[in-house]
Design goal:
The chain is built from 7 helices and 7 strands. With 207 residues, it is an alpha/beta fold. Helix 1 packs across helix 4.
């Protein structure tokens, strides 16, 4: 279990519980998924997904964003998820330039050469937000962009996670608090939190 997160921005979440939770949901995930193309395109605009970029998709799930990356002509996409069952489904959808990996993103060494990193509909499942942001900064080139986004409001998201997902989730941070956590590594230039969506995005600092 993660027992090192002692400040108010951390939660005690067992990563194996996260794996089991999403493995159990994987088979029906796409059946129950609602894809709002307009919201996703707005999020990916903020994330800087455009022709030629190298993208790290963190907690990719079954690959909901894959068609959008292809439509936007990303040059390379590394899609990582900790759930074996989710990644099995995602891998069946993947086509060049997308590569799927089943792993704990925080157990991997960042390459420092990605242009964009997207954490879509997944951030509350990471027990140590600041630690995650620090680790993701290591994947991005200076000036590269990190985007944390949800296709629902904070209130909707927290209600959604209050039931079955409560043991594998923490409350989503208000945009101002998450921007503060971004600040050691990223310059935030986009912060949207309304009744329909949540988008926080910034560029990796030069030093």
């Amino acid at each position: 279990m993660n027992l090192q997160c002692l400040d108010r921005h951390c939660a005690v979440i067992d990563k194996q519980d996260v794996v089991h939770f999403f493995d159990e949901l994987a088979a029906g995930w796409d059946r129950d998924l609602v894809v709002d193309r307009d919201k996703i395109n707005l999020i990916l605009d903020a994330a800087g997904i455009e022709p030629g970029v190298r993208v790290l998709d963190v907690a990719c799930g079954t690959g909901v964003l894959f068609p959008f990356y292809c439509q936007r002509q990303a040059a390379h996409v590394l899609a990582v998820d900790i759930s074996p069952e989710m990644t099995k489904i995602a891998a069946k959808k993947a086509q060049p330039p997308i590569r799927v990996m089943c792993s704990d993103i925080q157990a991997l060494q960042g390459s420092g050469d990605y242009d964009c990193c997207v954490v879509y509909n997944a951030f509350p499942h990471f027990a140590d937000p600041a630690g995650l942001l620090r680790d993701l900064s290591g994947w991005l080139r200076p000036g590269g962009r990190l985007t944390v986004a949800h296709s629902m409001s904070i209130a909707q998201l927290n209600r959604h996670h209050a039931g079955r997902a409560a043991r594998v989730s923490m409350g989503m941070l208000p945009a101002a608090e998450l921007a503060e956590l971004f600040s050691p590594w990223f310059d935030v230039d986009t912060a949207i939190s309304d009744q329909e969506k949540y988008i926080l995005s910034g560029t990796r600092k030069m030093s």
